[in-house]
Amino acid sequence: MKQYTTERTKKAFKAKVKNLGGQYCYVDFDRYGNPRVYVWKKVEGKTGPKIRIRASLDDATGFRREVADALDGKTTVVAAVQSEMPIAPPAAPQTWRWLVQKFFRSDEHLGLGSDHYRGTQRSILEATFDEPIKLGSSKKFGDKPIGSLTTQDFEELKKRKLKHVKKEHVDPVTGRKSFHTVTEGHEAANRMLIHCGSVLKFAKKKGLVQTNFAKDAERVASSNPNGHHTVTIEEIEQYRAHHQPGTVARLALELLLYGGPRASDASNLDLRHMRTVGGKSMLVYVQKKNQFKNSVTAFIPVVPTLQEMLDKTPRPDGVTAIVFNQWGKAFTEKGFSNRMKKWFKEASVPHCNAHGMRKACVVRMIMDDHTPFEIMAVTGHRTMKEIERYGRQYLRERAAEAVFDKWHAKHGVAGTADEARMKALMKLLDGVKDKLDNAVLKQVEELLLAA
């Protein structure tokens, strides 16, 4: 079977299919460039089945006849129920493509446990095959001998994932505009280096290479080290005002606020996860992340507010999923994330999402004076590092407030002029406190106490 690996040849093949078969013909290509032709037509306004066309384009008469049979309903085999193993092009020995394919057959890859993670790893690694060794070169990285690999090769692959974008920033206090350059694509670049590093770690273990060049390549720092926006108390109240008790939208919010599950876990939580622990009702579940390698059990206390939402939300007969879609089915991970975005958008807070609620859960528990170990038991975090990172902004604000509390306690400002100056100083510092780290705040505290 001829394989189509460039956009030009794929476009030409699609045009030929359209000319022979008409408007209802659809073409896609597997990861190796093998073409698959379907007839896909809407029936009574609904999307009909995709029916695979097996005839070759070289047999124009046979191809047209098979398309006509599919449109007339004479073909009963639906493409969706058929499965074929993609035909991988042969790899020259001792090349990068050969090494990666050898890795795919190893226990290091097959033992990952999660089909989703293996599929992601496979697609990322195979994408490196068709990359030119050097920009403008016709030689592909997949054909590069593993004996000639260098750290610079992976630095070059990393750079191709990155984009440098100039963005406008408006100071929230002064309103002044400034421009700064941010790097986008750092996650894709770092993920590619991680997976290439896994291949070279395997190769080093087998004595095929001496150095893990991908591991030696420098990782790209994030342009947004704080990650997803942490949903604030005000935004939560705005969401609550829009989505009333008795809706799945409101139930989902309270679940995320009091338990902080990831979207992959929230979509999978079920009433059958309910347990009584120490006389308290809890949702006890094994987190999906790393569940086959180093699993973590999380405990969500079913507090009165969450229990109230569970009781008030109408549930179709036989549905045991905690949160469910309009058809009474449990959400998929992606479906739940998208639905939360839609619900936030309906509440006029479109910049919020499900993961921002996980961070809000951590901040809420910090505000309620829970210990890091208590927070980790609920959210399933393994280390205190993530707890500290999620709560960093809130803790910084608390530290800034403590500076003024201590100053007032020591000096007891009474005069109206002094009060006015203090209020002006507090307003000024309040506008910039997010830009101050803890060391600077400590210095401000020492200066005020010494005044």
Task: Throw out a few tags for this protein.
globular; single chain; 48% helix; 3-stranded antiparallel sheet; 451 residues; alpha+beta; 8 strands; 18 helices
Which structural class best describes the helix and strand composition? alpha+beta
Cα Rg: 29 Å
As a percent range, the share of strand residues is 5-15%
Instruction: Give the uncertain stretches in residue-range form.
Output: 77-85
**SSE string:** HEEEHHHHHEEHHHHHEEEHHHHHHH
Please state the overall shape, judged from the principal axes of the Cα atoms: globular
pLDDT averaged over residues: 83
Q: State the helix count.
A: 18
Blueprint of the fold:
Blueprint: H1 7-21, E1 25-29, E2 35-43, E3 46-53, H2 60-71, H3 96-104, H4 107-110, H5 115-127, H6 151-160, E4 163-170, E5 177-184, H7 186-205, H8 213-216, H9 233-242, H10 248-259, H11 263-266, E6 274-277, E7 280-286, E8 297-301, H12 304-312, H13 333-346, H14 354-367, H15 372-379, H16 384-411, H17 416-432, H18 438-450
Antiparallel strand pairs: 1-2, 2-3, 4-5, 6-7, 7-8
Walk me through this protein's architecture:
- The protein has 451 residues and is an alpha+beta fold.
- 48% of the residues lie in helices and 12% in strands.
- It has 18 helices and eight strands.
- The chain has helices at 7-21, 60-71, 96-104, 107-110, 115-127, 151-160, 186-205, 213-216, 233-242, 248-259, 263-266, 304-312, 333-346, 354-367, 372-379, 384-411, 416-432, 438-450; strands spanning 25-29, 35-43, 46-53, 163-170, 177-184, 274-277, 280-286, 297-301.
- A three-stranded antiparallel sheet has the order 1-2-3. The protein has a three-stranded antiparallel sheet with strand order 6-7-8. A two-stranded antiparallel sheet has the order 4-5.
- A hairpin with a 2-residue loop joins strand 2 and strand 3.
- Helix 10 packs across helix 14 and helix 14 (354-367) packs across helix 16 (384-411).
- The longest helix is centred in the last third of the chain and has 28 residues, at 384-411.
- It is globular, with a radius of gyration of 29 Å.
- The chain starts with 6 loop residues before the first helix and ends with a helix.
